[in-house]
Structure formats: structure tokens, C-alpha cells
Amino acid sequence: MAGPGRRGVREDFREIVRLVQPGARVLDVGCGEGELLEMLGREKQADGRGLEISPEGVSACLARGLAVVQGDADSDLDYFPARAFDYAVLSQTLPQVRQPRHVLSELLRIGERAIVSLPNFGHWRVRLDLLSKGRMPVTNALAAPWWSTPNIHLCTVRDFTELCIDLGLVIESCAALANGRPARPIDPHRPLENWRAESAIFLLTRAPSRPPG
Amino acid sequence: MSDGGTAADFIETHAGLTTFPAGASLRLDSGGAIEGLQVAYNTYGTLNADRSNAALVCHALSMDQHAASRHPSTGKPGWWSQVIGPGAPLDTNRLYVICQNVIAGCGGSTGPSSIDPATGEPYGLSFPMITVADMVRAQAMLLDALGIDQLFCVIGGSMGGMQVLQWAADFPERLFAAVCIAAAPRHSAQNIAFHEVGRQAIMADPDWRGGEYARCGVRPEKGLAVARMAAHITYLSEAALQRKFGRELQRDGLSWGFDADFQVESYLRHQGAAFVDRFDANSYLYITRALDYFDVAAAHGGILAEAFRRARDVRFCVFSFTSDWLYPTGESRQIVRALNAAGARASFVEIESDKGHDAFLLDEPVLHAALAGFISSAGQARGL
Q1: Chain B residues with beta carbon closer than 8 angstroms to that of A62
Q2: Could you tell me which chain A residue has the CA closest to the CA of B318?
Q3: A18-62 tens-digit pLDDT
Q4: Which of A181, B46, B64, B193 would bridge B107 by S-S if both were Cys, CB 3.0 to 4.6 A apart?
């Protein structure tokens, strides 16, 4: 899966590991070959599980001793019972699913919190590329040309923030990633951040249910 | 069925036969019990000092305990020689691999062709009906006799996979890891239907003699061969049959009769004839019945996740094959769904293969690599 800055550890992984509480139960949706789950186990003693679409990815995870189910974020999240995890993680995968809205709601059915990272289509370089060249942008966060990208539902930080509001989700924190630099906490509602963030990581939770009466 | 590698020639095998004393009877789901139970098994590798490296291999309907060594009557390599052996996924340099002939089988464990101590004659149809849970209970008795409290791993394909599920439901505390391949949590209407065809073929053979053929000195070979031919089709796939045989003829030109004109006919006839040499017709009836009765959720209010509720500490790995229409991927997904709902540590891989249900017995490098990865990482976690 194309992610920002393939050099060494993916920067969004660093930030995800930082966000997760020690000993948490974590579901990594689209876990690839299990690098993040392994980091979470090693650094946060997390009890990790994965969902991965490719059999090769699942096999690689098995060899690492990880518990991973072959399946598809669009159709197979209903395998998992409600609130089975402290965190459901979706790193750089949301633009690749057929039903992002459904997948996002599922993440917060399964997990107490969701951690979602995504490339920002509102980044200034993306806007400039499209404006000046009239072509689909190719950037660090969007590395593949339009005809081979797995992304089918690209969005901006603003779009995603509005979807969260629409679904009644609370953004507990948000951090921007730009190539090679450590994650920077941002207020995703500020229009300027939608220009500056190459990609963003959101920590989400369900809105608190109203007190009875 | 494929012929395995040559490793089978060299693997050291211990063939065991345990007869349980009177008083240690096997209680059966059907209400009765088997006294003087005998179980035949093979072992490969060495049991370690703390008895923590035992892997139980559960065999499929038409197999037996000769999983990794030459079959004494056919001379063929073990049916899982590619999976069991030095350096294989079930590495006999590190693991003590046990494979027991299921009860009601015909490989030396007590079955309908055994002598009923009460009459001195073969049981025939007076043999009690048995279930998959009974098979598993007999395996647990063998482990007790071998002094093994907990298995490092229980593993099996097809009916073997169903035994694995039954193990997880009945004796989860005796398992560290469990691998279920190409199986289902219950027999479907289609599964029962095919088995019924097989049973009717056997019972329609005049030499079946109401199940008392052994006393009459005959065998219902034609009926058993037809049962095997019908079943064998369900183990393959349309694509595999087409690739192997197409419409190829045995000889030039048609016979304009009912000889085996087509290669696929000749192949099936051969499968039927070879099976008759190594399998007992009544065993086939009893074991197919046990499979039809199989529904691991039934004892748990019909809720599969409840069957696995006590197995949450077991490391599970479930495999299915894309072209398996006998136990399709959807069945394995139900198992995985229930394991997840029970909070168990479940992994699942659907292997791309056009070889049908029998893919688990064949050369499937993706399966073998994934198995090796799962088993070796579980071994590390177990300190093996």
C-alpha cells in the first residue's frame, strides 16, 4: 500500500504507536505485512489483531506470529463484535475502500476509538499541481499516477472533518504529517492546516451518549 | 491424492497400538460405550522432557494414521508427507507428531470390522453409532495414556478440521494452537446429500448382506467403489477435472458401448478400485454418518461463538481454498467470525487454488508456507 515516506518506518506508524495506550487491544484494518502490529506489540505490549486483503500479506503476518484474518474492510468488518477493541486503526486505507462512510462507522462500532490516517487532497502542492498543470497530482502522499492508484475516494482534511461531524464522531486529536518531519498537532478545523498538511492522523471517538432523561 | 516427497522413505515412525483396560470405557454420544477400546496410531519425532511439543494430526474420512510414513498395504507415501517431516511445517526435529486412526475406522482402531468381545464375531451393524466428539474423546484418552496434558497443536483438514473444532469446543485447555483446514462447523444439506448417495450405493450392493458381509466371507466392493467415485468428484473442482482430463479418450475412437471411453471415467474407476483395497464399507457408513451428525454449535444452543467461548486463549489458524465447493470458504468464514466473537486469537487465509477440496493434501506452496509461518511462530511463543 502506498504510504508517505517509505524510508525506514512509516511516519504515520510512529504517530499511531504514540497515540495507543500501553496494553491496549488494537485492530489494524489493512495491516499489510504486519509492521505496525509488530511495533505496537513490541513498544506498547498491545494485543493486536489484523484484517488484510492479500493472502501474501496474511502469510507474512502469520510468520511474525500475528493474528490476522484475510478479508476486506468493506465487507468483513462485521466479523468483529462491537467494542471488542480499544482502537481500530485504518492507516492510509480509507481512500481505497468502496464505502468510506460505512467503514468509518464500523471502526467506531468495533473500537472504543479509531485512528485514521489519510493523504490530504487539500495540500497546497496538490492544489497547485491541479491548478497549474491540469493533471492529477503525484506527491509524496499520493505517489501513484491516476491510472494505478488504489485510491478511489480521495478527500481533504476539511472533507473528512465534516464527515466526522456528520457521523457524530468526536475528533480527540489530529496531527499533520509532512514528508520527513515529525507529526505536528493541528486543529483540523483551521483552513490553513488544510493547505499545509500532506497527510493527517485523526484520533476519533463516538460522541458521548446523552444522559438519560 | 498426490504422492508426497521421498522424505517419507526416511522418516522414523513409531507405530502404536493401545488397548484400554476394562473400566476405561469410551463413553459415546449415542448413549452407549465401547469397552476394551483399541486405538492405532503413528508417531513421528520425539516427545520432549516436559511433554510440551506434541502435535496431534487429525485425519480425513478416507485416510488413516499413516500420515507421514509409507502405507503398509498400498506402499504409498503418507498422505501428508509434505507437511510432516524434518524441516517440514510440522517439523519432526522439534515436534512429536501423533496421528491416530479414528474410532470406527479400519486402520486398527476399534470399528465395525473389529471383533465384538461379547459375541466373538465382527461387530457389523451392531457397532454403536459414533460422532466426531466421540472420535476426539478417544484421542484425548490416547493423550492421557501417553502422559500428554496439553497439545502444542491440533491440526487437520476436512473431517480432521472438524475434529480440531470439536477439540476447541470440548478440551480447549488442552490446546495451545489449533489449525483447521478446508472444513465446516456443521455438515450442510449438500454434504449430507452426497454422503447419502455413497451409503445407498454400499447398501444396494448384494454383497453388503445387511452389514454382515464379514461373517459371510464377501465384501460389497462394487458399492464401496461407487461411493468413492461419487465422493471423489466432490473433492476436485470442475477446473481441475477439465485441466487433468478434458474430453481425452482412453483409446483412439469411441467404443460405442459402456467401457471407460473417457480418461476421467477410467480415473474414477481406478479411484474406486484402489479405495476398496484399503477401506471397509461399514467404516465408511459409520464415519460418513458421524460427519452428517456433526454440528459443533448444537451443544451450545446453536450459537457457534458459544462453542469457542472457552477457547479464547488458543491460537487458531483457519484455511480455506477458493475452488473448494465441498466445504466452501463461507463455511470457514463462519468459523472465523465465531472465533472473533468469542474473543479468540484467530487468523484466516483463503488460498487461491483450482484443485478443489483436495488442495489440502496436494502440493500447495502457499498453504505450506503459511502453515510453516504459523506453526514456527506459535512454537516460539510456546518456547519450543
Answers
A1: 317, 347, 349, 370, 373-374, 377
A2: A69
A3: 999 999 999 999 999 999 999 999 999 999 999 999 999 999 999
A4: B64
Spell out the residues 6+ positions from residue A206 whose beta carbon is closer than 8 angstroms to its own: A108, A112, A168, A169, A170
CB contacts of B374 in chain A (<8 Å) are 62-63
> What is the reported pTM?
0.93
Would A213 be classed as within a structural domain? no
Residues of chain B whose pLDDT is less than 70?
1-10
- Check if A123 contacts B (Cβ < 8 Å): no
Our CA-based measurement puts residue B373 at a distance from the nearest CA of chain A, in whole angstroms, of 4
Structural domain span for residue A82: 11-205
pLDDT tens, position by position, B182-227: 999 999 999 999 999 999 999 999 999 999 999 899 999 999 999 9
* Nearest residue in A to B378, CA atom: A65
Pair (B61, B119) in one structural domain: yes
Is B292 catalytic? The answer is: no
Q: What CATH number is attached to the domain comprising A112?
A: 3.40.50.150
What is the span of the domain harbouring residue B351? 6-187+293-382
> Is B319 in the same domain as B368?
yes
Catalytic one of B62, B114, B158, B237:
B158
**Residue partners of A6: CB distance under 8 A and separation at least 6:** none
Judge whether A41 lies within some domain. yes
Q: For the domain that residue B155 is a member of, what is the CATH number?
A: 3.40.50.1820
What's the grid cell of residue B378? 506459535
B158 is catalytic: yes
CA A127 to chain centre: 22
**Same domain membership, residue B65 and residue B183:** yes
Task: Kindly state whether residue A1 falls inside one of the protein's structural domains.
Answer: no
**Same domain for B145 and B11:** yes
Residue B1 lies in a domain: no
Interchain contact B317–A (C-beta under 8 A): yes
Answer whether B377 touches A (CB < 8 Å): yes
Q: What is the domain count for chain A?
A: 1
Q: Is it the case that residue A179 has pLDDT exceeding 80?
A: no
Q: CA–CA separation, A36 vs A42, rounded Å?
A: 10
Q: Residue B8 has which C-alpha cell?
A: 517419507
Instruction: Inspect the interface and report whether the beta carbons of A84 and B343 lie closer than 8 Å.
Output: yes
Residues B113, B219: Cα–Cα separation, whole Å: 12
Q: Which residues of A touch B372 (CB under 8 A)?
A: 63
Give yes or no for a contact between A143 and A136, defined as CB atoms under 8 angstroms apart.
no
**A68 with A30: CB under 8 angstroms?**
no
> B39 lies in a domain?
yes
- Cβ of residue A44 closer than 8 Å to a chain B Cβ: no
Q: Does B216 touch chain A (CB under 8 A)?
A: no
In a domain, A6, yes or no: no
